[in-house]
Amino acid sequence: MNRRNFITRTGLGAVSLPLVLQGIPLKAYDGPKLQQLFNTTEESDRVLVLVQLNGGNDGLNTVIPLDQYDTYARIRPSVAIPEEAALRLPNHDHSALHPSLEKLAELYGEQKLGVVHGVNYPNPDQSHFRSNDIWMSGSDANVSEPTGWLGRYLNTVYAGYPEGYPNTAMPDPVAIQMSAVVSLLLVGKERQSMGMALQDPETFYNLVSGTDTPGTDLPSTSYARENVEYVRQIQLKSMDYSTVIKAAADKATNQVTYPEANRLADQLAVVARLIAGGLKTRAYVVTLNGFDTHAAQVDEGDPTLGAHAGLLRLVSEALSAFQRDLEAQKVDHRVVTMTFSEFGRRPYSNLSYGTDHGTAAPMFFMGTPVQDGVTSTTPDLEDLENQNMKIRFDFRQIYASVLEQWFGASPQDVQDVLMRPYETIRVIKGSTTSVGTPAASNGSVSLRSISPNPVSTEARIHYTVQEHTELRLDLFDALGLHVRTLDHRQFDPGTYSTDVDVDRLPSGTYYVRLSSAQGQVVQPLVVTR
Fold first, then answer.
1. Is the pLDDT of residue 39 over 70?
2. Which residue, 502, 109, 55, is CA-closest to 307?
3. Could you tell me if 418 and 396 are in contact, meaning their C-beta atoms sit under 8 angstroms apart?
4. In Å, how far are 63, 87, 449 from 105, measured between CA atoms?
5. Does 86 or 476 have the greater pLDDT score?
6. Contact, 143 vs 122, CB < 8 A?
7. Torsion sign, CA atoms 428, 430, 432, 437
8. Does the pLDDT at position 26 exceed 50?
9. Which of 217, 438, 466, 521 is deepest in the core (most CB within 10 A)?
10. DSSP code of residue 200
11. For the ranges 22-31, 266-275, 445-454, which has the lowest average pLDDT?
12. What is the three-class DSSP state of 528?
């Protein structure tokens, strides 16, 4: 029984009292935590769409640091977006979007877009090929890993794949990449592909089912014809998914008009049809090339135009159409879209109206379920490392956050997939995280993180004090009732941690409150058994 069936059969819509399981309001466990209460390891109806911006997207011109605009304009004079042209974000003074991202700005205003600043990995390699491998494998910079982070996760869920698949539990492809070949990203633990390449459902169906007129699309050279025929025979024997893919594509039609001459939009239009058509596929991968903007990134005389502006407009219009289509199909609650690029660009512009290979860059999360807003502060342009921006978040923290908060993977499974534990950040609304979003009142205190979170025995609360003050650290339950005081005294400036024993507390959602005369900071703490 999946989550939707459970809620439907309990008659949630027909009762006015909150649904309670063993004394715990189920609202506190919406999503993956509810799944874990029923000993299921993953959300079976949730879909992740990965959008690769191939070539190294210029993050500083994508998300413009308004709070450091003078420095930004000084170090990249030939490519800096004019301040008056930047798209300011509602209720956020520090960042703005490139003027070509108008459609994404609309989604931000609707609380359907999240921005995570400063993502990369330690000791970055600025080679396209190596950086792509690192991002797709989830490995350290000095490790060559032959499997992909998403492939390993899917292999954890679908053990033994492809042996015994398709089956009644999973009759559809586990993952689909909209390309000619499947990338390292989807390579599983046994070095098998956990996904399949698909450029168009009709073409794919004709290819594997032999419905084209025999020989009409084969090469004329005998040797080449024999090889193509052999490949098709292998596909016919090994690929049992053509019928279900074609059926899903035929079942749904796009409900919005996608922009023309937009390769990313073309791919996402197919993805939307397959999701709405009922495929149980867990992940889709789409790609837009062209972000290696060493030269002519902007037009001379007007930095709001040029190659990068054109690419960002493609991204903005394609993603917006995709989101609107999902909403019209009433499947938007099931889908989260995440962008990534192998690296950002240098903060300094070059002499060719472009930017060279850099390091950290922002990532976008789009969708009805995502945690909207901007995570972390803009990159410090006065504090560079080898003339490059320092990272704020290891990219594997983002992967861990997605696996735990969206797919409901257990912390142990996430650790196994990513080969070590990583603190998470909040990327899904209402989810828990092992890193508290930095928050402060008048800059005097910040509650930095609670780890582990969820917790079954003991958690550690980390917080920072900026000035000498009296602080009180309290724990409250989901009803707002005081559980206990964890600390209450005078603090000098510095970083502190306090342990909280939850061994005797019932399962549920609790709240840690750090308060001073200047204000208070609150973070959730989930206790599970």
1. no
2. 55
3. yes
4. 11, 7, 29
5. 86
6. no
7. positive
8. no
9. 521
10. -
11. 22-31
12. coil
The C-alpha atoms of residue 59 and residue 66 are separated, in whole angstroms, by: 13
The dihedrals phi and psi of 429, each to the nearest 5 degrees, come to -55, 140
**Which two three-digit tokens encode residue 173?**
């492809």
* Helical ranges in 138-262 per DSSP H: 149-157, 201-209, 222-238, 242-251
Is 62:348 a contact under the CB 8 Å cutoff? no
Question: In 3-state terms, the chain is what percent helix, strand and coil (to 5)?
Answer: 30, 25, 45
In sequence order, what are the residues at sequence separation of 6 or more whose Cβ sits closer than 8 angstroms to the Cβ of residue 305?
298, 299
Percent above pLDDT 70 for the chain: 82
Q: What pLDDT score does 236 carry? A: 47
> In this predicted model, what pLDDT tens digit does every residue of 372-424 receive, in sequence order?
999 988 889 999 999 999 999 999 999 999 999 999 888 889 999 999 999 89
| For residue 34, pLDDT beyond 90 | no
Q: How far is Cα of residue 91 from the mean position of the Cα atoms in its chain?
A: 23
d(CA 139, CA 117): 21
Residue with tokens 């890193």: 435
Cβ–Cβ < 8 Å for 254, 324:
no
Q: Would you say 125 and 143 are in contact if contact means Cβ atoms under 8 Å apart?
A: no
Q: What's the confidence (pLDDT) of residue 226?
A: 64
pLDDT of residue 451: 79
Looking at residue 431, its pLDDT comes to 66
How many residues are recorded in the chain?
529
82: its two tokens: 């004019």
Which segment of 82-91, 127-136, 235-244, 393-402 scores lowest on mean pLDDT?
235-244
- Token pair for 39: 């000993």
Task: Give the whole-angstrom CA distance, residue 198 versus residue 267.
Answer: 10
Residue 433 φ then ψ, to 5°: -150, 150
Residue 240 φ then ψ, to 5°: -100, 20
How far is C-alpha 18 from the geometric centre of its chain's CA atoms? 31
CA distances from 511 to 29, 432, 483, 485 (A): 14, 11, 10, 12
Q: What is the pLDDT of residue 206?
A: 72
Helix (H, G, I), strand (E, B) or coil at 92: coil
What average pLDDT does range 313-334 have in this prediction?
A: 97
Q: How far apart are the C-alpha atoms of 82 and 64, rounded to whole Å?
A: 10
Helix, strand or coil, per DSSP, at residue 370 = strand
43 alpha carbon, distance to own chain's centre: 16
Domains in the chain, CATH or no CATH each: 47-202+241-418 (3.40.720), 210-240 (no CATH), 436-529 (2.60.40.2550)
Q: What is the dihedral of CA 377, 405, 280, 373, to 10 degrees?
A: -30
Contact call for residues 75 and 347 (beta carbons, < 8 A)? yes
Q: Which residue type, as a one-letter code, is found at position 146?
A: P
Q: Enumerate helices (H) and strands (E) in the chain, giving the number of each.
A: 14, 23
The pTM assigned to this predicted structure is: 0.74
Phi–psi pair at 519, nearest 5 degrees: 150, -165
Amino acid making up residue 259: P
**Range of lowest pLDDT (191-205, 423-437, 502-516):** 423-437
| Distance, C-alpha 475 to centroid of its chain | 31
